Amino acid sequence: MVDIVKFLINPFGTMLGGILMLLVPILIGVAYYTYAERRVIAAAQLRKGPNVVGPFGLLQPFADAVKLLFKETIVPSGSSRLVFILAPMLTFVLAMVAWAVIPVGEGGWFAEGPWVIADINVGVLYLFAISSMGVYGIIMAGWASNSKYPFIGALRSAAQMVSYEVSMGLIIVSIIVCVGSFNLADVVRAQQGLWYIIPHFPLFIVFFISILAETNRAPFDLPEGESEIVAGFFLEYSSMSFALFFLGEYANMLLMCAITTVLFLGGWYAPFDVAWLTWIPGVVWFVLKVCVLAFVFLWVRATVPRYRYDQLMRLGWKIFLPFTLFWVIATAGVLVAFGWLPNA
Q1: Among 189, 120, 116, which Cα is nearest to 342's?
Q2: 307 Cα distance to chain centroid
C-alpha cells in the first residue's frame, strides 16, 4: 500500500493517472458514440437499431469489439506490409494524443488550474501539428494497399483535409487575435462573460462545416464513397486494423467537437452566470456541449445528401477561404480601431 501511495505522489504516477482519467472515458465514449449513431440514424429512418445485446442494446459496442478482436487480419499479398500495418496505428494514436492539450475543466478537487494533461502555452500550435499529421495515416493506408480504390480514396482525403485545414486555420487565427494567447485554457477564460459563438457566429457555422469535411463525415464522406470507390482508403482492412481506423475516426469526431466547444462555446463555463448553474462542475458543462455537437454530426449524416467532389472543393477554396480571410482582417481591424487588442 505504501508503494502505491508513493507511486501516486510521484510526478510520473500523477501524470499517468491523469492520462488514464482522460483516455479511458474517451475510449468508452467512442464505443458508445458508435452505438448512439446507429440509434439516431435508426430513429431517423423509423427502425429500431441495436436492441438485442444487453438492455436496449447497450452491450452492442463490446460485442462488436470482441468480434473484431477475434477475426483474422488479412494483409493483401501485393501490399507494403509494414506501412499497411502502421497506417491504422498512426491514425488511432494521433486521434488520442491530440487530447493532451484539451482543457475539460478548471479548479475543484483535483487541481487549482485547468484540467488538462499538458497545459502548454502553444496548445493551438500543437493541435495544428497533430491535425496536419492525420492525413499521413490515410495516405499510407491508400498507398500500401496496392489497390486503385483505396488509392483514389486516399488522394481524395488528402485534398479534402488540406483544403479545409486552411479555412480552419484562419478561423482559429481570428479567435487567437481576440484572446492574445495560444493557450487553450486562456481561450476558454476569455469567454467567461461572452461566448465567441455570439460575435463570431458566421465563423462557428463555417468551422462546424469544415470539421465535417476534416473528419470525412457526411455529407463530405467522399474518401469513403461507397457508391463509387466501395470503402475508400480502408477497403483492404479487416479485424482490428479496421477497428483502429474506426476508433480513430470517431475519436477525431469527438476531438473536433471538443475543439469547437473550447473555441466558441465557452469550454467549461455554464451558459448563464446563475448560482444554481455555476454550482454544476465545469467538466459536466464541457461534456454536455461536446455531446450536443456530436449529436449534430449524426443528425447531419441522417438528413443531408452527399456533395459531389467538385462541389466540395469549390466550397472550400472559393467560398470558405475568401470568407475566413476577410473575417481575420475585419476582426483585427475592429480590435485595433476600438483599442480592444488583448495585452495592448
Answers
A1: 189
A2: 21
Q: Checking phi first, is residue 75 left (phi over 0); if not, alpha (psi -120 to 50) or beta?
A: beta
Taking alpha carbons only, the member of 240, 229, 235 closest to residue 141 is 235
3-state secondary structure of 173: helix
To which residue does cell 443528425 refer?
Answer: 299
User: Which helix or strand (DSSP H or E) is residue 3 part of?
Assistant: helix 2-9
Angle at 282 between CA 281 and CA 286, to 5 degrees: 125
Nearest 10 degrees: Cα torsion 325, 326, 328, 334: 170
Could you read off the pLDDT of 84-104 as tens digits, one per residue?
Answer: 889 999 989 998 999 999 998
pTM passes above 0.85: yes
Which of the four pLDDT bands, split at 50, 70 and 90, describes residue 220?
A: confident
**Which three cell numbers, joined as nine digits, stand for 188?**
476558454
Q: Which residue has the cell 480571410?
A: 325
Q: For the chain, how far is it from start to end, CA to CA, in angstroms?
A: 53
Can you spell out the DSSP letters for 76-96? Answer: -TTS-HHHHHHHHHHHHHHHH
Half-sphere exposure of 109 (CA within 13 A, CB side): 2
Q: What is the pLDDT of residue 339?
A: 86
C-beta separation of 172 from 124 below 8 A: yes
Compute the distance between CA of residue 281 and CA of residue 57 in angstroms, rounded to an integer.
30
Grid cell of 310 as nine digits: 467538385
Q: What is the pLDDT of residues 132-183, one digit of tens each?
A: 888 888 888 888 988 888 888 888 888 888 889 899 999 999 999 999 889 9
Answer positive or negative: Cα dihedral of 291, 26, 137, 75.
negative
Give the number of residues written for the chain: 344
